Structures are given as structure tokens and as C-alpha cells.
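Hey team,

Filing this mostly as a record. A colleague (T.K.) asked me to run one chain through the structure pipeline before their review meeting, and I want the input and output archived in the tracker in case anyone asks later how it was produced. No errors, nothing strange. Just documentation.

Input sequence:
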Amino acid sequence: MKSDDRPAIATVPADTLGQPRRVVAGALRWSRTLAAFRHRNYRLFFSGQIISLVGTWIQTVAEGWLVYQLTNSAFLLGLIRFLNTIPVTFLSIFGGALADRRSKRSILIATQITSMLLALTLAALVYWKRSEEHTSELQSPDHLVCRLLLEKK
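Output structure:
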């Protein structure tokens, strides 16, 4: 790295602990902005997260579509969306404590595998609903409510 490529370091007023802070001053360069992509593990994490998030978005739309198709009820559609937020709201504190004590990698793997299994469960329920011998099993949104309560990390 050339000496002129290095950003200037500025000292700013002390934080609440009385420690002076050093921050980068000046313009950011694109080469430094995307520097994390030089590391193979970050590229794998980033691409895996993109795939996971796109899958989550598709699943969210499909769940809403399925609930509305099965019930024709805007209320139940809203209820399902609301129920999606409950586990995140109440389990975030415990998830943070767990993340402080366990390996982040193993937590990521476990949550991704759990999400995949729950998505496959929903796919199987929808598939069986379409087959004639299991039509009565998914007529009520109870299956969806239970699965969605278990789903969120």
C-alpha cells in the first residue's frame, strides 16, 4: 500500500469513558470499501446470506399467498404476519446471550438448517394438501400458525 493511499487519522473528543477516539478522516476509496471481499470466508458468507435472504423473502410471499388462498381472509393473513414477529421479539435477548457464549458459525449453521427444514415442511404440507387423500388435513390455517410460530429464529 502506498503511503498516499492511507487515510488520515483524526483524534476526536473523548467518549463517555474518557478515552480519546481515533477515526478515519478523508474520503473513502472503493478499494478499501470492498476490501472484505478479498477474504474467501467473507465471500462465502456473503453469497450464502444473499441466497438465504432471497429464499426467506420468497417464502414470506408464498406463506401470505397460501394463507389468503386457503382462507380468503385478510384478517388471518394479517394474523400470520403478526405471529411471524412474536418469536423474534421475545427470543432476541436469549439469542444475543447465546451468541455471546457459543460459536457464531455453529449458530448460523443451526439456524439455516432449521429454516431449511421448516421450509421443506411447509412445502410438504402444501404438496399433500393438493393430493386427494390428505385434502382435509390443511383446510384450517392451524398448521400454518403452528409452523410459523416455530419458524422464526
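Quick notes for T.K.: The longest helix spans residues 40-71. Residues 14 and 20 are 4 Å apart (CA to CA).
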